[in-house]
Write a structure and sequence with these properties.
elongated; RNA-binding; 21 helices; two-stranded parallel ribbon; 517 residues; 9% strand; 3-stranded antiparallel sheet
Length: 517
RNA sequence: GGCCCGUUCGUCUAAGGGCUAGGACACCACCCUUUCACGGUGGUGAUACGGGUUCGAAUCCCGUACGGGCUACCA
């Protein structure tokens, strides 16, 4: 249900950002987040920033950053500012920003003001704490106000001990000190007012032992330094929003905080859409093919599956948003025009592959052939068909496009124009085949070759005249002719096919088929 | 377990207190088509449950149930 919320007056320019972590493929939810960011920015004449969150060394996957950029390029959602494009607010990689000491100084500031503290606990100690305090009612104990004084940190230790540890260069992290009884609330552009009791939120790590910031610190610091005005992300971030709000309050003031919107999740058959769902149910979940360099596992993408980028962003936009009318087919420009965050749904949307294909079908029918001619040529060349005559090619594609849902369908629907069918559906003809029909076609070969006006209509008339002369119903002859030319019971009107094939080829295919029937 | 978010046809959704709860995908039937599709017409099909507020509730409030998310030195 759309909320009636007015946007805060936009004193500063609209700047939104997408901040993926380069840890693998770009899934549907990720692309939709980019899309909504992009649409919102463009609608308000703002900027769209791509920031790379490569702060987790253990999960970083080589090549993923370029992959993400390629996906955005294919979908037509290239950012204004990014590591690839420059801009005035770089660096755009968190690893590079860490090197500049940007995060450290803000962590220090928080500690000075008593909003954060050093924690020296080792992973083993944390593990032990979780085991020791685990009960039936509380299966996952948190590092929070109830337990922090039982741990080793600058709050529980004396200042001498703390200083000694610091001087000795002990392994340490910086944690936020969550207030014990405060209610943190903020206005989400989609959900309205959301509030949290800080006593129930844990002391999240802000700066890791390796000096890298966690997402929590990075997102706040970067949004501030990059002057981000609106921050849109998936709903899975909602539970950590109070940490971010508090950080904004401590560091930069709530007035400077961007407007938040937590986008509904895209769901698979059971729960949040995952890579596994795609493999299990046979549909793509990534924008483009992604091969994990560690496991060599390939996850198929929408692009390679034969989706048009126009259809892809269209179907994604409509998964959780609509403009209030019955319009469903939107170009990117139309989306920019119609989009509003207030009309984004609060509830998660289950992905429906059948509807996704419908969108693609609509776009194949709608778009002029030349928009995707190259992609089809690639599909055909993969089956060792090469195109020489572009004009002819375009005519053929226009003839069959209504019958194609995904790009590879063109191979089935148009392949026979370039390569005689390998197999003829003999079973569809045999039972009713007669010597009279054979005679008819032997004569028809001559008709074709001598046809002066070689157009579909003229050829059809000639075909019917000859049929009448032979005392056979034309209907009984059309299916055999079709099988001769295309191999099966499919395709556009048969005389259109014959004309595009040309006299010689049509005659040759009939002649060959007669040797089989 | 705790916290947060959510709940209208199978799916995506419209309806911001007031027509018979509308559309799209999928499904079914018919028409068009001497192929397969496209297209056209029609059909099956939903307000989770219980209370309240109100002349009137899908809509506002409360509770219950159910679903999802989070609960890492991952994002």
């Amino acid at each position: 249900m759309p909320q009636q919320l007015s946007l805060q007056p936009m004193s500063k320019k609209v700047r939104v950002r997408f901040a993926p972590s380069p840890t693998g493929g770009l899934h549907l939810g990720g692309v939709r987040t980019v899309l909504y960011n992009y649409l919102f920015a463009k609608k308000h004449g703002g900027d769209f920033v791509l920031r790379i969150e490569d702060t987790d060394q253990t999960r970083y996957v080589a090549g993923a950053e370029e992959y993400i950029f390629n996906c955005l390029q294919w979908a037509g959602l290239v950012p204004d500012e990014s590591p690839m494009h420059g801009g005035n607010f770089g660096p755009y990689r968190q690893s590079e920003r860490k090197a500049a000491g940007i995060y450290q100084q803000y962590a220090d500031k928080l500690i000075e003001q008593g909003y954060a503290y050093y924690a020296f606990d080792t992973p083993e100690e944390l593990e032990k704490m979780r085991m020791d305090y685990k009960t039936e009612e509380n299966p996952s104990p948190q590092y929070d106000h109830k337990l922090r004084m039982k741990m080793r940190n600058s709050l529980s230790l004396s200042s001498e001990e703390t200083n000694q540890l610091l001087a000795a260069g002990a392994r340490k992290v910086v944690r936020i000190k969550m207030p014990q009884n405060e209610t943190v609330s903020f206005t989400d552009m989609i959900r309205g007012e959301v509030s949290f009791d800080t006593a129930l939120v844990d002391d999240k790590v802000l700066l890791k032992a390796d000096g890298m910031p966690t997402y929590h610190l990075a997102v706040v610091v970067d949004d501030y330094l990059m002057q981000i005005s609106h921050a849109f992300r998936g709903e899975e971030w909602l539970p950590s929003a109070p940490v971010h709000v508090l950080l904004w309050k401590y560091l930069f003031g709530l007035e400077a905080m961007p407007q938040w919107a937590h986008l509904p999740l895209i769901l698979g058959p059971n729960g949040k859409l995952s890579k596994r769902d795609g493999a299990k149910y046979g549909f793509p979940v990534f924008a483009m093919n992604w091969t994990d360099p560690k496991t060599n596992e390939l996850t198929e993408g929408f692009k390679e599956k034969g989706f048009l980028p126009e259809a892809f962003i269209n179907l994604l936009a409509l998964l959780g948003w609509n403009d209030g009318t019955e319009k469903e087919i939107f170009s990117k420009e139309e989306l920019v025009d119609a989009f509003s965050m207030e009309r984004v749904h609060a509830a998660g949307a289950k992905f429906d592959y059948e509807k996704a294909k419908w969108f693609n079908h609509e776009w194949i029918k709608k778009l002029p052939i030349h928009n995707y001619q190259l992609a089809i040529m690639n599909e055909l060349e993969a089956t060792s068909i090469s195109i020489t005559d572009n004009l002819q090619f375009e005519k053929i594609l226009n003839l069959v496009k209504d019958r194609c849902t995904l790009l590879p369908d063109f191979v089935q629907q148009a392949g026979f124009f370039f390569k005689a069918p390998q197999q003829l559906d003999v079973a569809a003809v045999k039972p009713k085949w007669t010597d009279e029909k054979k005679t008819f076609f032997e004569t028809f070969i001559e008709t074709v070759l001598q046809q002066a006006d070689f157009t579909p209509l003229a050829l059809e008339n000639a075909f019917k005249e000859l049929a009448a002369a032979n005392n056979i119903k034309p209907g009984e002859l059309q299916l055999p002719l079709r099988i001769m030319l295309v191999g099966g019971k499919f395709g556009p009107p048969v005389f259109d096919i014959a004309v595009l094939l040309g006299k010689e080829e049509t005659a040759a295919r009939i002649k060959y088929a007669l040797t089989i029937f």
